[in-house]
Prior knowledge:
The chain contains 2 helices and 5 strands; from the N terminus they run βαββββα. It is an alpha+beta fold and 94 residues long.
Amino acid sequence: MPTAQATITAEVLGPAKLMNRLAKHWAHKFEVELGEEQAVIPFPAGRCVLRVDGALLRATVEADDAEVLAKLETVVADHLVRMAKEPLEIDWQH
């Protein structure tokens, strides 16, 4: 299963609040698992795991294939930026 990771600094909102916002946003469409330091967001052909690590938010996306992975990377990054309401640097590593 193809996987990509990114480490995100959300200075204005903070990593926990950003994770919560994104998880609650997608909870209307998917069965999101949300804890204090981790959220798991299932998608039809993959998933996103967000983990709070001190001042950082670590995101992992997994997908059934490379094409879906690329789409999930874009969707997750776009939503993170929208929820953060600040510029974020999201560089997916494979």
